[in-house]
């Protein structure tokens, strides 16, 4: 029987939070799920944790690479290995509460074809698992009728967390996938929202963890997370992200007029407010690389 939803867990050296993250998807109240773990050459106890979990739970497929190919490669791998009509990325330090899968699958089943994904309300947790903030995500506007409105609302709200919602696999396959750039989540979401809408599930079943060790807090080290062999000096991360956002719209099947409307949202709602990031890209390229 085909699973109703696949969780994809890309992980590298995740021994600290992985047990809780993995347990949270194993404890979903929707039993017909698939769990795909891709271990990107971990050097800590991640392999042992995963192999033991796979030994005791037939829903788990554990894949291991002997070397670290970077985060973009690993996120792509779990998505490509999914066999379900609905897919959800699961960060190895987050928590998805028991009703996440059932509520999202039900929402997508009830929605029409213009809905490409569902995401529950989100709360933030700290390193100890304590909730410290409710995201004010009730009015993000990602259900707007027209693509350029959804793109504008995505960029304005910076709602990158919804990439961890539940995505129709058919819609995900129509994108270019995860791009090896910082901000890949915003690029992928732009492509998805050019296709269709998101339904927000009024169920606080996604806990996103914020802690000091996560890669997004590591400055220029983020570049190496995406592509370990890349040059930090010549990465131009903010500039490349801006370009990829335009390419995301270009790659869509939208009519020309609507593409222009979507392109018109990128400068005022994303690129121009982040001009200092592009300036830093240039300074990094011409000056000494900061450690």
Automatic annotation (TrEMBL):
Q: Does the keyword Transferase apply?
A: yes
InterPro entries, alphabetized: Glyco_trans_2-like (IPR001173), Nucleotide-diphossugar_trans (IPR029044)
Could you tell me which Gene3D superfamilies the record lists for this protein?
Spore Coat Polysaccharide Biosynthesis Protein SpsA, Chain A
Enumerate the UniProt keywords alphabetically: Transferase
Q: What is the lineage of its organism?
A: Bacteria, Bacillati, Actinomycetota, Actinomycetes, Micrococcales
Q: Where is the Glycosyltransferase 2-like domain?
A: 6-123
A GO molecular-function term, please? transferase activity
Matches recorded under CDD domains: Glyco_tranf_GTA_type (cd00761)
Q: In the UniProt record, does the keyword Lipid metabolism occur? A: no
Its protein name is Glycosyltransferase family 2 protein
């Amino acid at each position: 029987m085909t699973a109703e939803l696949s969780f994809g867990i890309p992980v590298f050296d995740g021994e600290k939070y992985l047990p809780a993250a993995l347990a949270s998807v194993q404890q979903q109240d929707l039993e017909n799920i698939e769990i795909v773990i891709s271990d990107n050459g971990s050097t800590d106890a991640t392999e042992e944790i995963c192999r033991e979990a796979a030994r005791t739970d037939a829903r788990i497929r554990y894949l291991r690479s002997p070397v670290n190919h970077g985060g973009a490669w690993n996120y792509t791998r779990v998505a490509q290995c999914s066999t379900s009509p609905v897919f959800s990325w699961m960060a190895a330090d987050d928590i998805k509460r028991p009703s996440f899968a059932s509520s999202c699958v039900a929402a997508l089943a009830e929605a029409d074809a213009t809905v490409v994904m569902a995401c529950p309300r989100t709360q933030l947790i700290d390193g100890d698992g304590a909730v410290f903030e409710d995201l004010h995500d009730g009015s993000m506007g990602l259900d707007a009728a027209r693509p350029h409105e959804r793109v504008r609302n995505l960029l304005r709200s910076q709602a990158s967390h919804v990439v961890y919602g539940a995505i129709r696999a058919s819609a995900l396959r129509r994108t270019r996938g995860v791009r090896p750039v910082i901000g890949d989540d915003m690029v992928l979401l732009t492509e998805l929202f050019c296709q269709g809408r998101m339904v927000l599930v009024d169920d606080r079943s996604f806990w996103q963890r914020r802690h000091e060790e996560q890669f997004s807090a590591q400055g220029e080290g983020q570049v190496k997370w995406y592509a370990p062999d890349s040059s930090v000096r010549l990465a131009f991360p903010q500039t490349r992200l801006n370009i990829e956002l335009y390419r995301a719209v270009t790659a869509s099947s939208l009519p020309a007029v609507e593409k222009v409307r979507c392109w018109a949202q990128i400068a005022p709602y994303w690129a121009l407010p982040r001009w200092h990031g592009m300036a830093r890209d240039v300074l990094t390229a011409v000056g000494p690389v900061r450690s």
